[in-house]
Amino acid sequence: MSDKQQPVQPQYVAPPYFQQPHDDEIDLRELFAALWQGKWWVIGLSMLCMLVAAAYVFTQPNVYRAQATISAVVDPYGLANKKYERLAHINQELEIILFSQAVTERLSALTGQPVSVTHEVARGEELIRLSAEETDPESVYQQVTSVAQFANQAYKAHLSEKLKHSVDVLKAEIRDTNSATISASLSDYAAQQTYKLEMLNHPSTQLIQVVQPATEPTSPIKPKRELITVLGFLLGGMLGVAIVLVRFAFKRD
Question: Nearest 5°: phi and psi at 65?
Fold first, then answer.
């Protein structure tokens, strides 16, 4: 009696999507070899881009910045019974008025040049920061210094003109009213406004104080020559590596 034949076990064949052709595999040694062979591309483009960046940045003029900080004087009229807001709110209102068209024109007349400084209320410091940028360090220093110096005078002249008009209107209303109560109330307010007007006309009254005067800049803020040159070198290196990798990919295909 013959032995029964054993059934043949089917061999497992991996699906096609599990089978990856060896031709598509990238050998790291080949990749590094390609980069080494194309090293002159990388070095050459790095040096070229660095020289172009350096040539551009060294033709740009130096730009200097000068800064100063000013602030409103709290209770400039000596009215201790008045409740004042936070200094930050006062300076925000002062910044709006100080750099309005009417006050800016007065400021330009006092400084003898157009007002071209930037201004902002510094957060956390409750101060008004003035700054300007120019290619001439002495000019930018003089510009910021003059604005900080004449800001108080221009602001006083603006408020004085408004108060004078307000006092004249109050006096006219007092003459025209027939009510003793209204006349007394208007007279008290007119007296207060007249007192403020006299304080504004006094040369020693300070509504704006210079907290930190400007200093003449000694080093430019831009262009960042070293940084731009280094970035040009890195950009050229990345461009060289990209060219080498593209050439390597086409050779494999």
Answer: -130, 135
Token pair, residue 201, equals 């006309």
CA distance 173 to 170: 5
The band of 249, judged by pLDDT with boundaries at 50, 70 and 90, is confident
Q: For 74, which DSSP code?
A: S
Angle at CA of residue 145, ends 143 and 150, nearest 5°: 100
Nearest to 209 by CA among 119, 97, 128: 128
Helix (H) or strand (E) holding 217: none
Query: What is the total residue count of the chain?
Result: 253
Residue 131, strand partner residues: 67, 118
Residue 118 sits at φ, ψ, to 5 deg, of -90, 155
Residue 68 backbone phi and psi in degrees, to 5: -150, 155
Angle made by CA atoms 73, 76, 80, in degrees to the nearest 5: 115
Whether residue 1 has pLDDT greater than 50: no
The helix/strand/coil state of 109 is helix
pTM: 0.71
